[in-house]
Amino acid sequence: MENSVFSNQYILAEKIFNALLTDDEARKHNNIISFCGDRGTGKTSCMMSFKSKCERDFNDCFFLKEIDPSFFDDTHNIIELVVGNLYSVLSSEAKKDEYDDSKRDNLVSQFNKVMIYLKYLAKPEDKEHYYDGLQELEALSVGLSLQDSIQKLFSIFLEYVGKKYLIIVIDDLDLNIQGAYIMSEHIRKYLTNDKCIIMLSVKVEQLIDAVQHYLENSQNVDGAEGHEMAVKYVTKLIPVSSRVNMPLLEDYCDNELEYIYTKADGESCTDEFHSVKEAVTHSIFWKTGYLFYNSLGRNSLIIPSSLRSLRQLLHLLYRMPLRDKEHPTEHKQNQKQFKQYFFYTWTQQLSAEYRHIAHKLISIESDLAFNKAVVANLMTLDVLKNSNQFKFIADPSNYAYNVSLGDVMRILDYLNQDESDMQLQLFVFFVRSLYSIKMYEYYDFVTENIDANHYPEPANIEQAGEIYSSDAMFERTNKIQRLVNGRYFSFEADEVLPPKSIQGDENQQSRDCKLINGDILIAEIQSLGHDKDQIDDSYKDKFQMVEFFILTISRLANIKRKTDSWELKRNAFEPSYLMPFHSTVKNLVFDVLSPFYNVLNLKNTYNRFDEYFRQDDDVTIYDFAKQHDWSLLSKMINNNDRDYGNEMHEFLSDAVLRNAEVLNALSERIRASRFGSYSSQNKLCIKEFYSKIRKSGMRTYPRSKDDAPYQIQFMFLDTICDFLESCNQDAFEAIYGRQKEAEDAIAALFTANDYAQSTIINTLRKALPEIYKKISYQEWKQKFPDERNSRAHIIEVIEEIQRR
To answer: Which residues, in sequence order, are bridge partners of residue 165?
Structure first.
């Protein structure tokens, strides 16, 4: 008992039981000891184990066989089943020989009286089957004495069997929803006496619901009143002082766990874990490769909340062979079994609304369209339905491949803020976990065959048939890229790094997301392409400078007019993060977090600029960088501690984000770093930022039970940090420090001293639609309430909205 997960429950149950045995007066008013908990929490196991203990320890008690309320129906009630159980003792052959005949005759007579009185409990339409008129009048006259008759029956029966107390055991009182209230009433009216003690297991909330349902239908009360009445009724029937509540997950999740199992050869084995939560998450990883994390003070929501579900999940996992990529068929079968559990068993705890959306997401097959479909479904939730906060991301006119994983994670971060809504928390966890499963499987797909899947060759048109233009844009991208769609992180300018104040300029310049001098960068690449046979230290420095910006450029910005915005246009046809940069491009967007996407396919990332670098030979800028160990590319690829026998696999293992929880942890670290101290020098500011986020703060689990866990850290960032520490400041600023023309677009639109409200709004609607759509028309009117609004005020307001 001391080592049982129910040890505290057994101690409390024994105290309640002893109190009932020693207090005859209390038993007349309430003689119930209840084992309370949700489905699968072990209340039946706990109650039956306690009953067995009492049978050994208390010789004065007679224990009836447990009663299952699921067998109750319109013609058989709980009193009849109790009386029937008592009579089965009397009618057994062994009892006939053992007990005194005169006592037996007296007991039989009392059984007969009780059964006659029980007819009073029959439904009115059934009474004609049992009595003539006089019998019915007789039953009515004695019906109020049924409780006394039953108590007398118990007394005679106990005297007959030589015991003092009758113990009635009822399993799952609330399971029969339709009859739960009637059963409860029968217990309260007829089984509450000083001759018996009742043990019952019950989910209190479900019993309250059943009573409320009965009261609303029979007494015509509304929901609020019915609920209040039901709570009072159940509290009176099962006082809090007589309840033994089952342990919750948090009560035992940190307990050490031993899992004992038998191998196929019959050998008994034991696996020991530091805690229950470790047993679940580690076992999932060892069998499937999927990572789920427990954090300090919080368990992963993948851990079942009931003992029954915990046992079932561990049994499922232990039936699987250990993960072994040398046996891919077995490995994929493990993953398939776990996904079947997660998608269709784990999701049963979600409400119908969330479960419906979850199953819709499972059915989406397109990688490119997945993010947009997830966003569309998220926006149907009540918390987002009427919100304008994410309307740019959720705009139906957006092309699916321009809705990124970062966009989805931004919305999920917003939803996750409401920790009071457990259903919403479970749903957000499901969506994140679905992404984790996809990212891990796609990473596996890419790394299983690096040569074919990392930088895919274009499809053979003659063999594949018609190739659509949208397919052609993605023919060189791998599966992870097509899920991420350009960005792991979706943020606005100045949300990651503090802006820099420029002396003599009242505006501040962003440092995390900004336009850079693309024309200077391109000219540098062209020069390097011409001079690639004249490699000296100066050449190496210039080439590394170019590489840094290749790795940190997110996309091009299609700016044709001074008033055009350089913001990401998700409704533009082209995926700007993939498009090769042509000779007229100079509007390139620097994104301090873009390396996390760009490393997914370094060849693709570098060769966006190949048009400028390649001259008279066929050596691409990627191939050139790969051939020289002094390049940032070669240094990044080789700067890790992995050992897979393939340098690109080793690099991807270090660099690729492939778990949504790790991505979320990194996002939190980025947000926390925003308010740290940074150098006023731009290149050092960026270097300090990468140093802060190099470690995710999370670990993978050991590959086997004998290995040590591995801290997830992005060693490739060390190469970038070393470069930023030593690179030439002036050369860096020549490319990075552009005075952004597009930031003057607002000022160029409003050149007069003041404007009317309608003029301001109409100008915004036509010239800056991306900014205009950020808030509603009514909100714009509120921003400019005066008859005439000053130019300074107009620019200030619009820039504030632009930064949102």
So the answer is: 61
Residue 505: CB atoms within 10 Å: 10
CA atoms of 643 and 647, how far apart (whole Å): 8
Instruction: Say what percent of the chain tops pLDDT 90.
Output: 54
Angle made by CA atoms 97, 98, 102, in degrees to the nearest 5 = 85
DSSP secondary structure letter of residue 582 = -
Residue 737 has pLDDT above 90, yes or no: no
Which spans in 531-575 are helix H?
Answer: 537-552
pLDDT band of 295, cuts 50, 70, 90: confident
The values of phi and psi at residue 284, to 5°, are -60, -45
Tell me, what DSSP letter sits at residue 289?
-
Beta bridge pairs of residue 273: 257
Looking at 158-235, which runs of residues are DSSP E strands?
165-170, 196-202
β-pairing, 165-170 with 32-36? Answer: unpaired
> Buried b / exposed e across 562-573, counting CB within 10 Å, b at 16+?
ebbbbbbbbeee
Closest Cα to residue 773, out of 408, 382, 385, 394?
Answer: 394
- Asked whether the beta carbons of 6 and 49 are under 8 A apart, the reply is yes
Phi-psi group of 473: left, alpha or beta (phi > 0 → left; psi -120 to 50 → alpha; rest → beta): alpha
Per-residue pLDDT, 520: 87
pTM confidence score: 0.83
Cα distance between residue 226 and residue 138, in whole Å: 35
Q: How far apart are CA 661 and CA 788, in angstroms?
A: 50
What is the enclosing helix (H) or strand (E) of 660?
Answer: helix 660-673
According to the model, what pLDDT value does residue 316 have? 96
Tell which residue, 170, 204, 194, has the closest CA to residue 77.
Answer: 170
Closest alpha carbon to 442 in 430, 431, 428, 453: 453
Residue 235, C-beta contacts closer than 8 angstroms, at least 6 positions apart: none
Residue 310 to residue 40: CA distance in whole angstroms: 9
State residue 804's pLDDT score. Answer: 59
Instruction: Identify the CA nearest to 310 among candidates 45, 48, 69, 49.
Output: 45
CA distance 553 to 525: 14
Q: Could you report how far apart the first and last alpha carbons of the chain are, in Å?
A: 60
User: What pLDDT sits at residue 702?
Assistant: 72
Q: Which of 591, 714, 615 is closest to 656 using CA atoms?
A: 714
Task: Give the span between the Cα atoms of 332 and 780, in whole angstroms.
Answer: 54
Residue 443 three-state SS: helix
Residue holding tokens 């457990």?
Answer: 422
Low-confidence winner among 455-469, 579-593, 598-612, 786-800 (lowest mean pLDDT): 455-469
| Residue range 643-696, pLDDT digits in tens | 888 999 999 999 999 999 999 999 999 999 988 889 989 999 999 999 999 877
Helix/strand/coil (H/E/C) assignment for every residue in 713-743: ECCHHHHHHHHHHHCCHHHHHHHHCCCCHHH
Residue 377: both structure tokens together: 């479904």
**Measured CA distances, 92 to 89, 95, 96, 99 (Å):** 6, 5, 7, 11
Q: From CA 566, how far away is CA 623, in angstroms rounded?
A: 31
Please compute, for residue 149, the number of CA atoms within 13 A of its CA located in the half-sphere on the CB side.
20
Q: pLDDT-derived band of residue 742, with 50, 70 and 90 as boundaries?
A: very low
